[in-house]
Design brief:
Growth Hormone, Chain: A, mainly alpha, about 85% helix, about 450 residues
Length: about 450
């Protein structure tokens, strides 16, 4: 098989940049919290809403992106996402009332939610099966790189007047870069075939893997469409599709209820609770972001060798252990020897190379061709709703239960994730998208 490596890497990296904006847009709030809290006069509930409102937009974006991606294409949807990212950052940075701030955060959420669904789907539908795990993992690498970039942006702008405004407005730059690069890549061959554009689909497949392999893959894809009857919406909720849809939803939810975004969004506040000032807290947060990036390379290097299921099991177990240790540290006020920083780094690093990266790989590949857009939309919607619940309730749980019990709740969710994956999740490595369909249906 003749593989066009440079073309495959180009389209994967460009699509993955949707994750960079995802990470930047969601994490930029962490550095702005100490400044928007007094500016808008926020209490614990108001802070939870200001931080978490973007996730309502994410849920709506994920819900609408399924239809948009099926109707107008994966590429067109990503272009819309890039525009929403730019508008959101500038608007939030210029806002003078909580209503306007929340409105633009919701707009950004639409882009984040849609990109979270479409970017990994675009990569999964385009690249060869034996490369799919590591290239879809590029999306998670882009997310954590965006988070790290946001942390650096927060640390840099923290010294300026109107610092929180500059933090938000800075996301317009990577958004415009993403928009420009999207015009260099094609639509996915599976979407083109779905819309009877066979010649264009074949041309892309030939460019990816050569003429002979392209003809074989084209026949497999066409067969996956012709063997299914009924509309995509009917198939989505049919008895045959329920097992795969349930698996996708639960894997998405478990990624969030293990507490990762509560830690990432509120990391400076967690560090300040150990006695650090705001600048030192932001600096340690950068360290966590850097570890998250480095850990993702482990997933990229090994997910196609070790497999998805083992990564999910290891991640659930190690993250749960870290949360228990952190709970004890906060319960007994033991903050010596940088133990909180070390355990948080291990927790975030474990997430980055397991649940963080592998969840997107798994969700992008398990759904059948006919329902992939809509099913991934539903699973991503569940992910964002779970993320919103965790993010909104975190300051309230800290206030009413305290940090130790709050972290204990997330540890319990890690245990439930381990049990579910162990018993219900099949392995998908080295299988084509069409072969994976037979595991569930």
């Amino acid at each position: 098989m003749m593989i066009n490596r440079s073309f495959i890497i180009l389209i994967s990296c460009v699509a993955a940049l949707g994750g960079l904006l995802f990470g930047f847009d969601t994490a930029i709030i962490s550095g702005a919290i100490p400044y928007i809290t007094p500016y808008f006069g926020l209490d614990a509930g108001g802070l939870g809403w200001a931080v978490g409102c973007i996730l309502i937009g994410c849920a709506a974006g994920a819900l609408g992106a399924g239809w948009l991606a099926e109707r107008f294409g994966r590429l067109a949807t990503l272009i819309v996402c890039a525009l929403l990212f730019a508008v959101s950052g500038i608007g939030a940075g210029l806002s003078h009332s909580l209503f306007v701030f929340v409105l633009f955060r919701l707009i950004g959420g639409l882009g984040v939610g849609a990109a979270a669904m479409v970017s990994p789907m675009y990569i999964a539908e385009t690249v060869p099966a034996h490369w799919r795990g590591r290239l879809v993992s590029l999306y998670q690498l882009a997310i954590v790189s965006g988070i790290l970039l946001a942390y650096f942006s927060n640390y840099f702008f923290e010294r300026f007047d109107h610092n929180w405004r500059l933090m938000f407005a800075s996301q317009a730059a990577p958004a415009l870069l993403f928009l420009i690069l999207l015009f260099l890549v094609p639509e996915t061959p599976r979407w083109l075939l779905r819309h009877q554009r066979k010649i264009e689909a074949l041309a892309i497949l030939i460019r990816i893997s050569g003429s002979e392999a392209a003809q074989t893959e084209l026949a497999q894809i066409e067969n996956s469409f012709t063997t299914e009857s009924g509309s995509a919406f009917q198939l989505l909720f049919s008895k045959a599709s329920r097992p795969v849809l349930a698996t996708g939803i639960l894997i998405a939810v478990f990624q969030q209820v293990t507490g990762i975004n509560a830690v990432l969004y509120y990391a400076p506040l967690i560090f300040k609770e150990t006695g650090l000032n705001n600048s030192s807290a932001l600096l340690q947060t950068i360290g966590i972001g850097a570890v998250n990036v480095l850990a993702t390379f482990i997933a990229i290097g090994f997910v196609d060798k070790v497999g998805r299921k083992k990564f999910l099991l290891i991640g659930s177990l190690l993250m749960g252990t870290c949360l228990v240790v952190l709970a004890f540290c906060f319960n007994y006020q033991y903050f010596d020897h940088y133990i909180v920083l070390v355990v948080l780094v291990l927790y975030v690093g474990t997430f980055g190379c397991t649940l963080g990266a592998v969840t997107w790989v798994y969700l992008s590949e398990i759904f059948p061709n006919r329902i992939r857009g809509l099913a991934l939309s539903v699973a991503t919607l569940a992910l964002w709703l779970a993320d919103f619940i965790v993010t909104y309730t975190f300051p309230l749980l800290i206030k009413n239960l305290g940090t130790p019990l709050t972290l204990g709740c997330y540890a319990l969710c890690c245990i439930l994730s381990f049990i579910y994956v162990l018993n219900k999740v099949p392995e998908t490595k080295d299988k084509t998208l069409e072969e994976i369909e037979t595991l569930f249906i």
